[in-house]
């Protein structure tokens, strides 16, 4: 297999297979849980604004209540740091936008390249702090299992391979359209595909489960007239 | 026939069926069965619970919301860790991909009897079901509700604390978890009638409001009955106390047994139906409110044939309507201790404060008051678990810090269990701080009532 063959594999069958698993796995996880069902609540609601409550629940938990801001965990603040950093890189980097456009035809204006490079710092440092805290904090150590360690690795890996691949994407191509450095790019793509393969099955599924979970609690507490 | 059809066509159990199953739950204490616990854990994970169990990212932020963790720094008291046996059962049997994981040999093992015995302390002794962790969870997971569901698995399989099984047995036998029978309540009513000079209506058919009471109120704070009589006389409220089915405490909710809870609740419902009342007043008791108002219809499988009103809500309504008028005010720095099930879990946050402002010249707020208030440490049945006493007193340190920070000279609350637990802890820490029931405070400053020259003395 030549270097270009590897890249073609990463861009072709590996990508489509990982996307298939990602979509089917995520759909199955949500549908399987929905099918568990729930009984209707027969108590008289204090408020019937359940949908509004669910929405409020989703947005309210994006900002920690002031009573809990003195928490001993770095996670609360650090969470913003690496989530925002990752979002800037994943959705703001021009090659990523072009990649999505090639797949779906949907595109959006990218962030300036300098801003994306700036976002790498918080993302990498934030994720390293996450790991350090999980290794040293007694609560996090007790709670952590394979899913936590592997999920961390699976998120960190594309960051590292992505940094190695910078400059190897098709805009910086050799004559004939082939990337100058196909191997780092192929490895980066494969690491992202590994993320797609794992996401539906582990804790990374919180990317979509968080909205459902917050919505459920938001609706339930609103029903009782309780604070969110 | 143990089943009958409810109005919606769903078969619901009769009180007799609840009693039979409730007795079986109590009997399970004699032969703990981890397999039965696992089955019940799985059965209790419905759609909403499953989404929430799956959404956890194990960030540990719930630990910093829990007073048991904050005072001990024992990571085992992290709220979400308390769910581990239920989570494992769910992941093994019911979660998406569970069958694949089982086939691959990756499914988590079932919890053993020894593990469940250890978790009994975590799920009961060190959890008040107060819901502070729920409020802190960035994933929006209702951890308190999940612990309540975990208790259902523990209680049906014999892994709940022996004290709670005993309390449940007492309640099923006598109606009260501590054996308070009608003659004891009748005696307290007679005393209050003498003290107030008012007749306290008993078993009056067709009254608007049915007053039920918790055993703690009857035994430790019977003045509440007299206070209600004075308040209702001024507000011209038609009310009655039942001689059967007067117990508001529902140990089934604390134990985590739906059958015990439903059996006990049925007695209140029967009393309300027998006396044809329109409303049942949930007394100053947090979990009694939760059991009757929010869980009641779901436990019985049918809507309640009356409206449930919490006493604080009713007093607030009477003041708003101008039927309840007060004069004067307590000059001490009074702080309201928010009972978790009324405030954080029940949404009754502003009403007690409005009432206090009407009879207090100097109301102060504790830090994190309202929805994020610290529990007294005895909620969720913890005050009934003897082995948990030391931990409960330790947890009170969070509350103590709040009280001292506010410079409160007296605490007011609307839960007899909170009041009792607070008084015990205050004594334990050699503090001097009276704890007052809100209903009693209101009654003391009624417009028609003679003003006591020394309210502090009148309120202990």
Supply database-style keywords.
heterodimer, A: 228 residues, mainly alpha, 10 helices, 69% helix, 0% strand, B: 460 residues, alpha/beta, 3 domains, 4-stranded parallel beta sheet, disordered N terminus
How would you describe this protein?
The complex is a heterodimer of chains A (228) and B (460). Chain A has helices at residues 3-11, 13-34, 50-60, 75-92, 94-104, 113-136, 138-143, 146-165, 182-198, 206-224. With 228 residues, chain A is an all-alpha fold. Chain B has three domains: 32-160, Fumarate Reductase Iron-sulfur Protein, Chain B, domain 2, CATH 1.10.1060; 177-319, Rossmann fold (3-Layer(aba) Sandwich); 322-458, Rossmann fold (3-Layer(aba) Sandwich). Chain B has 22 helices and ten strands. In chain B, strand 9 (410-413), helix 20 and strand 10 (435-437) form a beta-alpha-beta unit. Chain B is globular and about 75 Å long. Residues 1-11 of chain B have low confidence and may be disordered. Chains A and B meet through helix 2, helix 4, helix 7 and helix 10 of A and helix 3, helix 8 and helix 16 of B.
Task: Describe how the helices and strands are arranged.
The complex is a heterodimer of chains A (228) and B (460).
Chain A: H1 3-11, H2 13-34, H3 50-60, H4 75-92, H5 94-104, H6 113-136, H7 138-143, H8 146-165, H9 182-198, H10 206-224
Chain B: E1 3-5, E2 11-13, H1 15-27, H2 34-44, H3 47-55, H4 67-72, H5 84-93, H6 98-103, H7 113-125, H8 132-136, H9 143-156, H10 162-174, H11 182-196, E3 209-211, H12 215-220, H13 223-235, E4 239-240, H14 251-255, H15 258-275, E5 279-282, H16 286-300, E6 307-310, H17 311-320, E7 334-337, H18 350-359, E8 363-364, H19 389-406, E9 410-413, H20 416-428, E10 435-437, H21 438-444, H22 455-458
Parallel strand pairs in B: 3-4, 3-5, 5-6, 7-8, 7-9, 9-10
Antiparallel strand pairs in B: 1-2
Helix pairs in contact in B: 1-10, 1-15, 2-5, 2-9, 7-9, 11-13, 13-21, 15-16, 17-18, 19-20
């Amino acid at each position: 297999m030549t270097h270009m063959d590897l890249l073609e594999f990463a861009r072709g069958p590996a990508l489509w297979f990982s996307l298939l698993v990602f979509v089917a796995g995520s759909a199955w996880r949500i549908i399987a849980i929905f099918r568990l069902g729930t009984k209707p609540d027969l108590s008289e609601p204090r408020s019937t604004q359940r949908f509004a409550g669910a929405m409020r629940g989703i947005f309210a938990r994006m900002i920690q209540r002031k009573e809990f801001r003195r928490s001993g965990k770095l996670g609360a603040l650090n969470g913003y740091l690496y989530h925002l950093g990752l979002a800037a890189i994943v959705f703001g980097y021009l090659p990523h936008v072009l990649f999505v456009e090639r797949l779906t035809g949907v595109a959006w204006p990218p962030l300036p390249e300098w801003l994306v490079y700036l976002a790498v710092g918080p993302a990498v440092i934030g994720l390293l702090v996450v790991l350090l805290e999980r290794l040293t904090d007694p609560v996090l150590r007790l709670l952590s299992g394979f899913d936590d360690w592997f999920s961390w690795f699976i998120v960190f890996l594309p960051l590292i391979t992505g940094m190695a691949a910078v400059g190897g994407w098709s805009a910086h191509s050799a004559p004939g359209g082939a990337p100058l450095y196909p191997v780092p790019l192929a490895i980066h793509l494969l690491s992202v595909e590994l993320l797609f393969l794992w996401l539906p099955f582990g804790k990374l599924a919180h990317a979509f489960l968080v909205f459902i979970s917050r919505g459920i609690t938001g609706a339930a507490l609103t029903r009782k007239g309780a604070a969110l | 026939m143990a089943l009958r059809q409810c109005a919606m066509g769903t078969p619901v159990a009769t009180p007799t069926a609840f009693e039979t199953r409730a007795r079986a739950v109590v009997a399970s204490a004699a032969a703990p069965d981890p397999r039965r616990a696992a089955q019940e854990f799985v059965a209790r994970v419905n759609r909403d619970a499953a989404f929430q169990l799956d959404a956890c990212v194990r960030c540990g932020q719930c630990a910093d919301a829990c007073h048991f963790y904050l005072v001990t720094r024992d990571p085992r008291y992290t709220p979400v860790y308390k769910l581990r046996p239920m989570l494992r059962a769910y992941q093994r049997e019911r979660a998406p991909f569970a069958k694949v994981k089982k086939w691959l040999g990756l499914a988590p093992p079932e919890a053993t009897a020894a593990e469940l015995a250890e978790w009994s302390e975590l799920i009961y002794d060190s959890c008040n079901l107060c819901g502070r962790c729920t409020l802190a969870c960035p994933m929006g997971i209702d951890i308190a509700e999940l612990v309540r569901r975990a208790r259902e698995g523990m209680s049906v399989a014999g892994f709940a604390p022996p004290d709670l099984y005993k309390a449940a047995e007492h309640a099923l036998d006598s109606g009260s978890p501590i054996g308070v029978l009608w003659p004891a309540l009748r005696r307290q009513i007679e005393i209050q009638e003498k003290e107030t000079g008012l007749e306290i209506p008993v078993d009056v058919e067709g009254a608007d409001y049915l007053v039920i009471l918790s055993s703690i109120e009857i035994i430790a704070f019977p003045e509440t009955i007299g206070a209600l009589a004075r308040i209702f006389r001024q507000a011209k409220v038609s009310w009655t106390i039942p001689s059967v089915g007067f117990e508001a405490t529902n140990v089934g909710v604390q134990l985590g047994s739906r059958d015990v809870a439903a059996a006990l609740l049925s007695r209140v419902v029967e009393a309300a139906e027998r006396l044809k009342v329109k409303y049942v007043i949930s007394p100053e008791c947090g979990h009694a409110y939760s059991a009757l108002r929010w869980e009641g219809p779901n436990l019985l499988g049918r809507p309640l044939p009356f409206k449930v009103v919490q006493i604080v809500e009713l007093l607030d309504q009477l003041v708003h309507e101008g039927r309840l008028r007060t004069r004067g005010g307590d000059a001490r720095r009074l702080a309201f201790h928010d009972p978790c099930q009324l405030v954080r879990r029940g949404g009754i946050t502003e009403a007690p404060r409005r009432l206090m402002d009407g009879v207090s010249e100097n109301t102060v707020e504790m830090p994190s008051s309202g929805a994020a208030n610290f529990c007294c440490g005895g909620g969720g049945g913890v005050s009934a678990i003897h082995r948990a006493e030391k931990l409960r007193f330790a947890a009170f340190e969070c509350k103590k810090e709040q009280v001292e920070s506010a410079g409160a000279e007296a605490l007011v609350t609307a839960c007899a269990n909170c009041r009792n637990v607070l008084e015990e802890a205050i004594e334990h820490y050699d503090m001097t701080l009276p704890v007052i029931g809100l209903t009693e405070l209101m009654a003391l400053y009624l417009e028609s009532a003679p003003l006591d020259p020394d309210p502090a003395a009148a309120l202990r």
